[in-house]
């Protein structure tokens, strides 16, 4: 189930769906997604599906992780400092941590983040700093960021996330309630304005306020 063939099949599917970055496809092929699931579900790890991780949350679908990473890396050039909202299982965090210099990851459900932290340490990824907090406020003390990725959907883009973008920084975020759109915002460095592009319909868990212990 975790064989090279199974993973190659997943990569082929992502290619068919239009993911073009060879770098991102290789990251997906080389990242052990089964380690981010409970054992009972790990046999489904290389299906292109979102899967439950407890607390009513889901491990994002590989397609969406690949797409968001590709968009983020493509739009931001060579991002070094990246903020992630919604650590969840840590799978997207793991992909980002292999692609950029440092990731700051915020999660509102403590037990999920604790597990994610353990998994990434186990995989030898030490370039991630975690915070148990409401990520709707970003992480002002650590900003500005070259890129911000949100794995949870707000109804409207939080102003604090925009404010924490560096000049030419990019935000990749699902936006909306019943109907959500994956959205890319680029902070124009010269005129200090925000350029927004709506990319494709998506389905994410909502960005909730407050924290759970
Ligand atoms: N990329 C993650 C996705 C997890 S689902 C993975 O593949 O596992 C989205 C996560 O966002 C959930 O864990 C949820 O608890 C978290 N979340 C929702 N609202 C949040 C908020 N305001 N601040 C931080 N995390 C939030």
Automatic annotation (TrEMBL):
It holds the Pfam family PCMT. One of its GO terms (cellular component) is cytoplasm. CDD domains: AdoMet_MTases (cd02440). InterPro entries: PCMT. It comes from the Bacteria. It catalyses: [protein]-L-isoaspartate + S-adenosyl-L-methionine = [protein]-L-isoaspartate alpha-methyl ester + S-adenosyl-L-homocysteine. It is found in: Cytoplasm. One of its GO terms (biological process) is methylation. Catalyzes the methyl esterification of L-isoaspartyl residues in peptides and proteins that result from spontaneous decomposition of normal L-aspartyl and L-asparaginyl residues. It plays a role in the repair and/or degradation of damaged proteins. This is Protein-L-isoaspartate O-methyltransferase. The gene is pcm.
């Amino acid at each position: 189930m975790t064989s090279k063939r199974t993973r190659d099949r997943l990569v082929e599917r992502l290619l068919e769906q239009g993911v073009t970055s060879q770098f991102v496809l290789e990251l997906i092929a080389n990242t052990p997604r089964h380690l981010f699931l409970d054992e009972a579900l790990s046999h489904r790890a290389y299906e292109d599906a979102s899967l439950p991780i407890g607390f009513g949350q889901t491990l994002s679908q590989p397609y969406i992780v690949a797409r968001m990473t590709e968009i983020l890396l493509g739009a931001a050039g060579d991002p070094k400092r990246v903020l992630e909202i919604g650590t969840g299982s840590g799978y997207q965090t793991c992909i980002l941590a292999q692609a950029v210099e440092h990731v700051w990851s915020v999660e509102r459900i403590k037990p999920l983040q604790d597990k994610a932290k353990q998994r990434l340490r186990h995989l030898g990824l030490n370039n991630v700093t975690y915070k148990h907090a409401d990520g709707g406020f970003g992480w002002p003390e650590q900003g500005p960021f070259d890129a911000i990725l949100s794995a949870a959907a707000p109804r409207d883009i939080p102003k604090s996330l925009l404010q924490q973008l560096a000049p030419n920084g990019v935000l990749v975020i699902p936006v909306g309630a019943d109907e959500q759109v994956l959205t890319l915002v680029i902070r124009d460095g010269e005129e200090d304005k925000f350029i927004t592009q709506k990319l494709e319909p998506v389905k994410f868990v909502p960005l909730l306020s407050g924290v759970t212990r």
